[in-house]
Amino acid sequence: MIEIFKTNVQEEKEAKKILNILIAEFPKCKINFDLEDCDKILRIEGIDFTVRIIEKRLKKIGFICTVIE
Fold first, then answer.
1. pLDDT of 69 above 90
2. Distances in whole angstroms, Cα of residue 57 to Cα of each of 26, 36, 39, 62, 68
3. What torsion do the CA atoms of 20, 62, 68, 12 make, to the nearest 10 degrees?
4. What is the rounded CA–CA span in Å between residue 34 and residue 57?
5. pLDDT at 37
6. What domains, with CATH codes, occur in the chain?
7. Do 44 and 22 form a contact (C-beta atoms < 8 A)?
């Protein structure tokens, strides 16, 4: 499963913090950011996560994250 999220992450250091959190929780997933994209894309590929969990994790640490359908 591949999911693409629109976020409000602006800085590389914020993206790294989020990546560290998500990779620790979902080590079997491939996770990356594209901060050059106007939607500040978070891309996750794997099978052991849900859209709802990702959105909740980012909201918990102060970021907006919505799946792009």
1. no
2. 12, 22, 18, 9, 17
3. -50
4. 18
5. 96
6. 2-67 (3.30.70.100)
7. yes
Backbone angles phi, psi at 65, to 5 degrees: -150, 115
Separation of first and last alpha carbons in the chain: 13
3-62 pLDDT, tens digit each: 999 999 999 999 999 999 999 999 999 999 999 999 999 999 999 899 999 999 999 999
| Nearest CA among 46, 39, 1 for reference residue 22 | 46
Place of tokens 């894309």: 41
Where are the strands (E) in 1-69, listed by range? 2-7, 30-34, 41-45, 65-67
Q: Which of 67, 68, 55, 66 is nearest to 18 (CA)?
A: 55
